[in-house]
Amino acid sequence: MAKLGSSGHPAVVRVRTQRRAEEILSVCDQHGWKAIVGVEPDQPEDVSDVERLLNPPRPARAASSVGRNDPCPCGSGVKYKKCCGKPRPAATS
After folding, report:
1. What's the rounded Cα separation, in Å, for the pair 36 and 49?
2. What is the pLDDT of residue 35?
3. What is the chain's mean pLDDT, rounded?
4. How many whole angstroms separate alpha carbon 49 and alpha carbon 21?
5. Which of 11, 41, 53, 72 is most exposed by smallest CB count within 10 Å?
6. pLDDT by residue (tens digit) across 22-53?
7. Quick check: helix, strand or coil at residue 72?
C-alpha cells in the first residue's frame, strides 16, 4: 500500500467552504503531499487524513525494566536483587 499523501494514496479531505479548501491545499503543497479536496457545504468537515499527516502516530515503546543492580522501585533504598528481585522460597506443605 502506498504512503498517505503520495500520488498513489492521496489524502482525502471534505470541507464546507472554498476558503477552507484553499487553506488545506496550501498546507499540503508546503509539505509536498497530494490531496483530494471536496467542497460539500451540506456535509460535516473531515480533515482527518491531513491531521494524521501533520501528527503521525508514534510507535509504542515498552516500559524499561528494572536491572538487578538498580535501586528497588519499592523505595526501600536496597538494590533490586536484594529486595523484591530476590527469589522467594518454595512453599512446603
Report:
1. 10
2. 95
3. 90
4. 14
5. 41
6. 999 999 999 999 999 999 999 999 999 999 99
7. coil
C-alpha cell at position 18 = 472554498
Extents of the domains making up the chain: 11-54
Element spanning 35, H or E: strand 35-39
Terminal C-alpha separation, the chain: 60
Query: Where do we find the cell 491531521?
Result: 51
As a whole number of angstroms, the distance between CA 53 and CA 48 comes to 9
What stretches of 17-93 show up as alpha helix (H) in DSSP?
18-31, 48-54
Closest residue by Cα to residue 3 from 52, 74, 76: 52
Q: Is the Cα torsion angle 14, 17, 20, 26 positive or negative in sign? A: positive
Is the distance from CB of 49 to CB of 35 less than 8 angstroms?
A: yes
Strand pairing report for 11-15 and 35-39: parallel
